Amino acid sequence: MNDAIGDQTVAFIRVDPGRIMLYGDDRGGGFIGPIVYGDLALSPPTLVKEMTWGKRDPVAISAELIPQLNANYLFVVTDLNNTAAKNELQKLYDSPLWNTVTAVKQNHVFTADSTIWLNNGIRSNAAKLDVLVAKLAP
Fold first, then answer.
1. Which of 61, 73, 106, 133 is most buried by its number of CB atoms within 10 A?
2. Cα 53 to Cα 44: distance, rounded to the nearest angstrom
3. Going by DSSP bridges, is the β-strand pair 19-23/59-61 parallel, antiparallel, or unpaired?
4. Which of 67-71, 89-93, 106-110, 119-123 is least confident?
């Protein structure tokens, strides 16, 4: 994977009604960080490391902080079967702030279904790898 994107950074946020969560930490305690930053050794943005490393759970952030992530690739995880979550996501995508996000400018934003990303196990983890390969190393 690193051959495809080099040292470009990858970040994951989760958008739910009323909150945005930042995922990270490569050592466990989450469904995303151990695979993305641990197993695959993809590079997190500096702010992801500063805010999430050493924490067991994802960290709540404001929408205003998303551009400061300065991620080259941004995966936005949400429950695509939840109308309120989809509305919250659309509100974020429609905000003027969204167009200042590095990954948006580079057309490297991917919406990801929470049923895959917020679960653990062989099938979920295999599906995560399939998505990462399809999006980052097509």
1. 73
2. 10
3. antiparallel
4. 119-123
For the stretch 95-137, pLDDT in tens is 999 999 999 999 999 999 998 898 888 898 899 999 999 999 9
DSSP state of 99: G
Report the sign of the C-alpha dihedral through residues 109, 80, 52, 43, in that order: negative
> Going from the N-terminus, what domains does the chain have, and what CATH number goes with each?
2-136 (3.40.50.1980)
Decide if 60 contacts 66 (C-beta within 8 A): no
Q: What is the DSSP code string of 8-60?
A: -BEEEEEEETTEEEEE--TTSSSSSHIIIIIIS-PBPPHHHHHHHTT-SS-EE
* DSSP label of 137: -
- Residue 7 token pair: 């040292």
